[in-house]
Structures are given as C-alpha cells and as structure tokens.
Amino acid sequence: xxxxxxxxxxxxxxxxxxxxxxxxxxxxxxxxxxxxxxxxxxxxxxxxxxxxxxxxxxxxxxxxxxxxxxxxxxxxxxxxxxxxxxxxxxxxxxxxxxxxxxxxxxxxxxxxxxxxxxxxxxxxxxxxxxxxxxxxxxxxxxxxxxxxxxxxxxxxxxxxxxxxxxxxxxxxxxxxxxxxxxxxxxxxxxxxxxxxxxxxxxxxxxxxxxxxxxxxxxxxxxxxxxxxxxxxxxxxxxxxxxxxxxxxxxxxxxxxxxxxxxxxxxxxxxxxxxxxxxxxxxxxxxxxxxxxxxxxxxxxxxxxxxxxxxxxxxxxxxxxxxxxxxxxxxxxxxxxxxxxxxxxxxxxxxxxxxxxxxxxxxxxxxxxxxxxxxxxxxxxxxxxxxxxxxxxxxxxxxxxxxxxxxxxxxxxxxxxxxxxxxxxxxxxxxxxxxxxxxxxxxxxxxxxxxxxxxxxxxxxxxxxxxxxxxxxxxxxxxxxxxxxxxxxxxxxxxxxxxxxxxxxxxxxxxxxxxxxxxxxxxxxxxxxxxxxxxxxxxxxxxxxxxxxxxxxxxxxxxxxxxxxxxxxxxxxxxxxxxxxxxxxxxxxxxxxxxxxxxxxxxxxxxxxxxxxxxxxxxxxxxxxxxxxxxxxxxxxxxxxxxxxxxxxxxxxxxxxxxxxxxxxxxxxxxxxxxxxxxxxxxxxxxxxxxxxxxxxxxxxxxxxxxxxxxxxxxxxxxxxxxxxxxxxxxxxxxxxxxxxxxxxxxxxxxxxxxxxxxxxxxxxxxxxxxxxxxxxxxxxxxxxxxxxxxxxxxxxxxxxxxxxxxxxxxx
Length: 811
Prior knowledge:
By secondary structure, the protein is mainly beta. Helices cover 5% and strands 65% of the residues. The protein contains five helices and 49 strands. 39% of the residues are buried.
C-alpha cells in the first residue's frame, strides 16, 4: 500500500522535474583587470535587483570565469570583490525562462592605489565625498562627530551655514533647504527642523547627503535642494545591530544613547532604531537697536542670560514582507518627541537721546513641546519587461504646545520701581498631512531609462494664539494679540524623466515636473486671509561627459520654487521685549529660482561653479521699524530678487599611508535687492568658507582626527553675519572587532558665536545681536555592534513623503 501510494507521486515528480529544470537558466561571466588579465579567486555574488538579497555566491577560476546554474527568471546584478582591487557591480539585467545561458558581460576591476594598500585605510571612508549632484558627509566614519548632534555636524560641513538665531539652514548661500530622513521627507518647518536636528544624536547617523541638484522625481520645493540624513541600518542577514552611549560636558551635561537593529528571516525583514538625547547648557547674548523719529533717537539694549534644557527621542520600526521574488510590501511607523524648557533673566535698557529713560528686568519661562508620528504603507513590484512600479501612502501628525510666561519689573532712570507687568502667551498648533504617490520606471533600451510618477498632498493645520495680562489678580485677554487661524493646502504633481546614455562617455538626464498648488488661510471668524491658486512647470537638465579615465565635466540647469512655510504665513506673536516683536506675514509670495551649474573633476579633485537668480526671494525675520511707537517688528518678507555666484574646490591629499587630508574651499558672491517703505535697497557681499580634516592612523588601533571650519562675513536678507568657526579633535580606540571608544573635543577655541548686524541708517534700520549657542564640549562615546555580519539584506526605497515634512517649523 505504501509503495502504491508513493509510486504515482514519484512518477509525477519525474514528469515535473525536467520541466522545472528546463525553466531555469545559467549565468556565465568573466572578471578581468584593466589590462584584460583574468582575476582569479575573486568573490562574485549574484544579487536580486529589487532588494540586494543574496541568491548565490562563488569564486572565479584561474581564467577569471564564474558560473551560476539553475537560476530562475528574474532581475539580478553581479557584485565582485578581490584583494588589491576596487569592488565593482554590474548593471541590472533580466533573465527569462527562454534563456539557457546569460552573460552579463566582463567585469573590469581597477587596482587600488598603492597608497591605500593598508586594510584599515581602504575600509575607512573620507569625511566628505563630492558626487556630481550631491556632497556626502560620512558621519559614521568621522571621529570628531562622536557625541555631536546632527546640527553640529551640518554647521561644520562645506558650503552649509546654520543660523541658530533665526533657525535656518542654507547651502552655498541659499536657504530653502528641505530635510529628508532615510529618503523620507520631514514636513516640519525649517525652524522646527533646526531644533530637531540640535537634539538628534550623530551616533545614529550613517551619512548626510547634501543634494544640490535634485531630480524631477523630487518636489520642486526648496531652491537650495535637499539634506538627506541616512540613519544607520545594519545590512546583514539574520539578527544584528549596534548601540552607543555618550556622556559629555560643556557648561552643562550632554548625554546620548542610540540603538538600531535588523532581523531578517525568510521573506520577512524587521528593522528599527531608537535614540535619546538630553542636553543642558547656558544661552547668553546681547541685542541693540536704534530708532530715529525726527529729533528723537531711541536706543534699546538687552542682556540675556538663559538656561536651556532639551530632551528628545526618535523612534522608528518597520517590516518588509516579500510576497514573491518580484513584489515587496512594507509598513513603517515613526515617532519623534522634543521637550524644551528654558528659564531666562533679561535686563533691558531704554535710552532717549542718549539719556537713560527706563530699565526693565524680565524673568521669563518657556516650554516648547513637539510630538509627531507617521505611518507609511508601501508596495514595490518589478515586472519582466525591466520595469517597476512603487506605491506609497503616508499619514503624518504633528502637535506643538508652546506657552510663554513673562514677568517684568520696570524702573525709572533714578532706579525707582515704576510697575510690574505679568503676561502670558499660549500657542497650540496641530498639523496633519496625507500623501499618496505612484512612481514608475522602465528600461526602454540599454541606453534609455524612463521614470514617471504622480503625487498628491493634502495638509491642514490650526494655529491658536492667546495673549493674556494679569491685572488685579485676573487674567485679561488681549484680543488684538489673540487669534485662531486655519490653513488648508493641497498640491499635486506629475513628472517624467529620461536618462540617456548618449555615448560611452556622455550621459544626459532630462526631466519635467508640473505642480499645482491651492492654499487657503482663514481666521476664527471665517474670514479668508489668503486664497491662492497657481501652477508651474519645472524643468531639469543634467549632462556629464568623461574626457578620459581621470578627467570629467558636467553641467546642469533647473528651475525651482520656494513656497512660504506654514508658520511664516500664519500670524503669531513672540516677544523679545515690549519694543521687539516677531510675527508672521500672510502676504508672502512664492519665490522662483533659476540655476545653472558647471563642474570639472580630475581624479578626486573637484571644482564646481554655479549662478542662480531668484525672484521674490523669501528672507526670514526682516526688521520693520515703527518710529512712532518706538517698536521693531520682525517678520518674513519677499525681496525683489537675490543673485548668487558660488564656487567650490575639493582637494584630497594622501600625505602618507598614515596621514590623509582633505580641504574644501567655498566662495560666494551674493547680492540682494529689496524695497523698504518704497525705497530701493541693494546689498552685496563676498564670503568664503574653509573646511579641513586630517586623519592620522596610529599603531595599536588608535586613530586621531582633526577637523575645522571658518565662515567669513555673510548675508541673510538685509542682515550681515560676522565671521565664525570651530576647531574639533577626536581620538578613537578600536577595542576588538565590534567595539570602539572615542574621546572628542568640540569648539575647542570657543569661536562658535552668532554675531550679526544691520546698518542701514537711511532706512532707520540699525542694530546688532551677539548670542553664544555653543560652548567648548568634551564627550566620551562607547559603541558596540552585535549579531551576524555575513550576508547582506534589505532594500532601499523611497516612501513618497520626501517633500512635505519640511514645511512645519518648531518656533
């Protein structure tokens, strides 16, 4: 009975098996060096194109040949490595059931430079890597980054300028930067992003990408491009990860902790990370402004002494499920929280015609809590005709609670107390985003690739402000400074991009994107404050040409838009003192910029120059003087235009096997043209930014790194910033195969001071500010990895929400 039951099954297996084998293919290829000689004993891996998952591995023969047999239909690529040669990967190819043998072509490996034969040097990435469309900052390989925050790494990066007072980030003199986390857009407004990055531990970051020439697949928003922060993801099969802890001191304690993990088994990949940061530090500064009103001259001076305490967490967990060899579905959940507390003592002195009139002592407290969460569902499918499609749906929610309490005591010029004033300012801002996108790509031929997609975003937020004054033990609401505004915005986009391999040495990428925007801002009474509808085409063109093995040139052209941020157009009120107020501007217009860039590279030496012209450029917090009320109101404003010429030179130097250097010089010519109360204002400025890094490989697994930067005088609208810079050092000791101990010293010379001024007496705009945000700090960091470190794992994917998160701002 047993035999009779088994026999039909055996017969069926014998019938099916030959058919199954006949549906599989063989892959055969060869690996050579640049002289055409075979590379023996090279490691060759066959990987799935969709998720880089390992299919098979082998070694080349003495003739450099390799073979993979019994390969099912699908899309693959080959990865090869060999001692003394640079790793190489083939292009993606399609294997069909009809093919008996497929050849991906010859893999040609280039020799590693003799100055890099030391294994330690080869494995270590340089601090900065310049690519045609972006600059890579390899944070994980930087010793001086240990114990720093993401913002501190950015403000030391070539071409990047961080304005901590106005909470803005600019690249090559251009603001309007948008932030992505692992290719996913962060929809917080820039000032909120600055605060978030100031609490994000660099220990959880693999690298930062400064994308200055974004493709058409990304939103046209942001004239300066994108900053993509790539968090650490262990790329190995099985269960693995890493953790680190930092303790430091610099006028206050600094603590950080980070952990990331990845687990892959069968068709399921589970991954996640968690980081926590706490920082406490003093915040000191001074401000001055002068207002003229006929024969009267008012001078206002303030001295600030504040203590800031910030706690922040960032968490993400995701799961990918491989439905079949061509389809993956994924779920990603993110959460971030920031809790900020400050206590402030400020003394303000008010002069009239050089005589002291009033003195105010202010005792203020502020809470600024931000919380957000996001849910992403994504699907990616590959087809047999060398095409793929991906779908993404995002929901994001942000909530901001920001109460201020002000207690002020006023004295006359003789020092007699005049009166007390107690006020409070409450602010609540919930925000919601719904995003959906579909992206399609297809290899039309060996030299032509098409990308296209559609995207739609719905956004809304409520900005609730309440200003009260304590009078006779009762809180009396000031209706003039209390408001409730609701903003609704939706914008849709469609794009197409062609990548053409025009010749063996020339590549052309051309794209066109169309975006249409609807924005509506209403007050509590239902009155429409802003109702705007507009659409525009945004072309991009990028051309690269290889002159020889060592020489290459490239050029690009793009048109981009900078929409007003949500908090910029929604009215709000923030008091520095009763004579100085920050507020929003519902009348802001979107700005359009055009840029052309050209570059030349010789080996790893790179030179790049660009010119941009931006109409209606948006400048954050520009002063407007009310000489009658003796008050300065600072709000975002549209300039007439802004012109920029930038040039960057990257010079790497391998001085010896144990000492490497890299120098980056960025030069900027900037001109802004504006109208102030009917008068034309034109300001131009030349500035230079210098970055340098030195790495010393020492015996007994010690490595020393010395980095520094210098930023000369620069412009932000009509405001001028004085020079500043920093010098940092780090010492790293490798402890076994999986642990390191790092000691770092940051801002050693205490030169990271923010000093700015405005000197336009004809427009009644005279003032300056001096604030110290950073102090000399020393950190000790321990890092350890764990788990299986043998095989590669997960896919890299976008989630379609890459362009909205940056329009929310922590105030």
